[in-house]
Amino acid sequence: MSNRNKLFNLLMKNYIFFSFTLGLIMFGLLSLLAYQLDRELNGPRPAYLTASEIVRPHVEEIPSEAIQSFGGWVEILNEQLEIVHVEGKKLDQATAYTEKDLNALLYDQKDKTYTVSLAPFTAHDGQNRYVLVKIPAQYAAQNIELKEMNRDEHKIFTKIMLQILALFIVLFSLNTYFYSRWTARKITNPLSAVAEAIKNVANGHYYKRLNVKANHEIAQIQEHFNVMADRLEKAEQEKKRLEANKQRMLVDISHDLKTPITTIQGYVEALQLGLIHDEDKKQKTLTLIQDKTQLVAALIEDVFELSKLELPDYPLTTEVSDIAECLREIAAEWYGPFEDKQFIFEYAIPAHEVNIPFNAKLVNRAISNLLANALKYNPEGTRVSLELAERNEEIEIIIADNGIGIAQELQDKIFDAFVRGDQSRRSDGGSGLGLTICKHIVEKHRGRIHLDVVDAGQESTAGRHGTIFRIVLPRR
C-alpha cells in the first residue's frame, strides 16, 4: 500500500485542513469585526456637539443628548450673558459671564478643562440669546474630535464583540464537528470494526473476517487479523475433527477389544466347565485363545504407538543413511510372504546410494504396513510393486498393486484411525490403525503420503494397479 495512505499522512492532511478552515473562519470574523467597528464607530459622528449645530428658537427643542452623553451640558445666556437655562448636568459654578470670560473659554488652551463653543440666536419671543456648549476636555480634541468612546460607543463595541464571539463559537463548533466526523470515518470507524471483529474472535466466532477500507496501518492490522482468524478457524475445525476422531477411536477400540475378549472369555469358560472333552478340540481352542490374545496385544501395541506418534514433542531421531538399502532389505523380508500367497512382487530400487535423513525403524514400519495391507486385502495373483524414485530435492517411494482397490467413499478418510479398506473384515486381525500410523511416521519425517486409485481399465507407469500409495520425503 502506498505511503500516502499511512496514518501519519492522513492525520497531517486532516490537521492542515482543520487549521486552514479555522484560519479562514478567523480571517472572516476579523474582517467582519473591522467592518462593523468601522461602520458603527468610524461612521459619521453624532451631530449636535457644537453650539451652532444645536441652536433652536425654542429652548426645549435644543438637542443636547449627544453632548450630555460625553458628560457635557448646554447653557442658554441672555443679552447680559447671564445663564437663564441649563440642559444637562452642570459641573462648574458659573452663573454669568463677561466678554472677557467668554474669550478666555473660547480661546484654545492646552490645559483648559472644557471644550467650549458659542453661538448667538434669536429666541421665539424675539429676544437675543446665546447657546454655550461645554464638553469635558478628556472627551474631545481640537475641532470637537472625540478621543475616547462614549458610553453608547462602548455598548456598540461590546455588542459587536459578543456577536463576533458567538459567531466564532458556532463556526468553530461546526468545523470541529465535521472534522471529527471525517476523522471518525477514516480512523475511528475502522478501529471500531477491528474491535468488533476481535470481540467476535474472543467469543469463538472465528469465521468473521474484516473487510474495511482504511489507511495503511489499519489495513495491515486487518490483513494480519484475517490471517490469524483463518488459522484459528482451521485450528478450531482441526480440534473438533480430532475430538471426533478420538471419540470414534475410543468407540472402535472398545468394539475391537470387546470381540476377541468376549471370544476368549467364552472359550475359557468352556474349558473351565469341562465342556470340551476332546483333546484335539482343546488344543484348537487354546490356539484360538492364543490368536485372539495376540490380536488384542497387537491392537494395544498399535494404539500405544499411535499415541506416541501423535505427541507434538515425539522424540524422533534420524540419521543420514541409504534409503535404497533400507528398501531392499524390506523387499527381501516380504518376498517370501508374497510368494507364499501366489502374489507377484516386484521392486525397482536404484543400485547406487540414496542418502537422506530418516529413522530406519519407523520407515520400515510404515512401508511394512502398506505391504501388509496389500497382502491381506487382495486376492491371489495380485501384482505388488515397490519403487524408489529420485526427484530434485525429494525422493518418492511408491507402493502399488492391481488388486481390488479402495471404495470411493473411503478414499478421503483412509488414513483416519480404524478405517479399513475392506470394512466387512473387522475381526480378521487388522487393527485399522496401520495407515494412520504410516501417515504419522511420514509426517514426522516432514514428508507427505498420498493415495492414488486407478480404475481397472487404466494403466499406470508400473502396470495396471488398483491402489497406489506415494510417500514423498525430503533429501535434507
Automatic annotation (TrEMBL):
One of its GO terms (cellular component) is plasma membrane. This is histidine kinase. It is a multi-pass membrane protein. Its EC number is 2.7.13.3. It comes from the Bacteria. The chain crosses the membrane at residues 15-35, 156-179. Gene3D superfamilies: 1.10.287.130, 6.10.340.10, Histidine kinase-like ATPase, C-terminal domain (3.30.565.10). GO terms for molecular function: ATP binding; phosphorelay sensor kinase activity. InterPro entries: HAMP_dom, HATPase_C_sf, HATPase_dom, His_kinase_dom, HisK_dim/P_dom, HisK_dim/P_sf, HssS/ArlS-like, Sig_transdc_His_kin-like_C. PANTHER family: SENSOR HISTIDINE KINASE CPXA (PTHR45528). It catalyses: ATP + protein L-histidine = ADP + protein N-phospho-L-histidine. Keywords: ATP-binding, Cell membrane, Coiled coil, Kinase, Membrane, Nucleotide-binding, Phosphoprotein, Transferase, Transmembrane, Transmembrane helix, Two-component regulatory system. Its main location: membrane. SMART domains: HAMP, HATPase_c, HisKA. It is found in: Cell membrane. The keyword rRNA-binding does not apply. Residues 185-237 form the HAMP domain. Residues 252-476 form the Histidine kinase domain. The keyword Membrane applies. Residues 218-252 form a coiled coil.
